[in-house]
């Protein structure tokens, strides 16, 4: 049955993949974004230029849209400075997503789908983590601010009366227009030999293609229980595995190797953490409850597609 759907962050990498799928299914789509000039190119039923940090304006727009489902795919990870991106995204989650939830409840929406991330899990041994694993709320710095904001949003989301809350915890998003695509930040760092192998390279990354992120949202518009879902591929990868493979596919030099001591003196804390101790995540819940299968089961094929090395 066609639904009335509001998508915040409609011009982001997941939003752009999602909007055509929603229209193909016959849903009525209202797209929200902060800048009006970025909305004009979208093929949707209605558009609204509104800042998620402006609660009164949000309430007006959502009351007018009368959504069944509200989807938040907003972020500030496009900021050039990584620390600024973390700070702005934490603020957006803590205040913007909650403003959007308030407006969704006031407008009578039945379901709210928010964006989380598996990188927020607290590392634990060599485990691949599931949805009941704790978030790393005690980690310091900007990263800690973001994780605490995500945890706060999910606590609110899962306890709100009158609306069903779903949090989609993505792995590292890749695909067109992401940091991993040619010209993106990760691509530039790898090509410039600025992303090294550190120590044994046992930090695990779970990857999520933007097409799979968008596809899961379609499945959860009405189906599936409220709660958190890891939206990741089937193959968490150690940095010692995925980073050299990515470099080869990108035609970049092989990553240099640093000891832990060298890395700590040359790299930021978050990069060292991701390369050495971050844990991957399991998509078991999605597969078992929804029968979901990623269209890109492994980052290997997905990376190859980015560089024209995989059959279309």
Short structural summary:
The protein is of the alpha/beta class.
Q: What is the CATH homology-level superfamily?
A: NAD(P)-binding Rossmann-like Domain
Gross morphology is: globular
Summing up helix and strand content along with how strands pair, one would put the structural category as alpha/beta
Largest sheet: 7 strands, parallel
How many runs of DSSP E, i.e. beta strands?
13
Q: Reading side by side through the largest sheet, how are the strands ordered?
A: 3-2-1-4-5-6-11
> Which ranges are low-confidence, i.e. pLDDT below 50, for 5 or more consecutive residues?
none
Taken together, the total number of domains comes to 1
Query: DSSP helix count?
Result: 12
How helix-rich are the residues, as a percent range? 40-55%
Report the CATH C-level class: Alpha Beta
Pfam families: Epimerase
Protein name: NAD(P)-dependent oxidoreductase
InterPro entries: Epimerase_deHydtase, NAD(P)-bd_dom_sf, NAD(P)-dependent_oxidoreduct
Domain NAD-dependent epimerase/dehydratase: 5-231
Task: Walk me through this protein's architecture.
This protein has 312 residues and is α/β, with parallel strands linked by helices. The protein has one domain: 3-Layer(aba) Sandwich (Rossmann fold), CATH 3.40.50.720. It contains twelve helices and 13 strands. The protein has helices spanning 13-24, 36-39, 55-65, 82-106, 141-159, 185-191, 210-219, 239-250, 260-266, 269-276, 284-290, 299-306; strands at 4-8, 28-33, 46-49, 69-72, 111-117, 164-170, 172-174, 197-198, 204-205, 207-209, 227-231, 237-238, 257-258. A seven-stranded parallel beta sheet has the order 3-2-1-4-5-6-11, with helices on both faces. A two-stranded parallel ribbon has the order 7-10. β2, α2 and β3 (46-49) form a beta-alpha-beta unit. α3 packs across α4 (82-106) and α8 (239-250) runs parallel beside α12. It is globular and about 55 Å long. It starts with a strand and ends in a 6-residue tail after the last helix.
């Amino acid at each position: 049955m066609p639904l009335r759907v509001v998508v915040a962050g409609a011009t982001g990498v997941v939003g752009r993949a999602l909007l055509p799928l929603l229209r193909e299914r016959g849903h009525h789509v209202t797209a929200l974004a902060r800048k009006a000039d970025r909305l004009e190119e979208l093929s949707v039923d209605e558009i609204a230029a509104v800042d998620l940090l402006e609660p009164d304006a949000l309430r007006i727009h959502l009351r007018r849209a009368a959504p069944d489902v509200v989807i938040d795919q907003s972020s500030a990870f496009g900021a050039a400075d990584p620390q600024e991106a973390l700070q702005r995204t934490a603020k957006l989650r803590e205040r913007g997503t909650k403003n959007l939830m308030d407006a969704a409840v006031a407008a009578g929406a039945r379901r709210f789908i928010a964006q989380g991330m598996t990188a927020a899990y607290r590392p634990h041994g060599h485990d691949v983590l599931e949805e009941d694993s704790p978030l790393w709320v005690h980690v310091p710095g900007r990263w800690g601010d973001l994780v605490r904001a995500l945890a706060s949003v999910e606590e609110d989301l899962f306890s709100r009366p009158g609306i069903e809350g779903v949090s989609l915890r993505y792995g590292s998003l890749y695909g067109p227009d992401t940091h991993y695509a040619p010209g993106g930040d990760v691509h530039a760092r790898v090509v410039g030999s600025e992303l090294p192998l550190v120590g044994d390279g046992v930090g695990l990354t779970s990857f999520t293609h933007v097409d799979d992120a968008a596809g899961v949202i379609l499945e959860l518009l009405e189906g599936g229980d409220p709660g958190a879902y890891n939206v990741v591929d089937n193959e968490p990868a150690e940095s010692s595995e995925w980073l050299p493979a990515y470099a080869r596919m990108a035609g970049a030099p092989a990553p240099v190797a640093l000891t832990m001591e060298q890395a700590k003196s040359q790299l930021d804390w978050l990069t060292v953490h991701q390369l050495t101790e971050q844990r991957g995540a399991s998509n078991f819940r999605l597969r078992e409850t929804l029968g979901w299968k990623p269209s890109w089961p492994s980052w290997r094929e997905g990376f190859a597609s980015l560089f024209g090395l995989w059959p279309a």
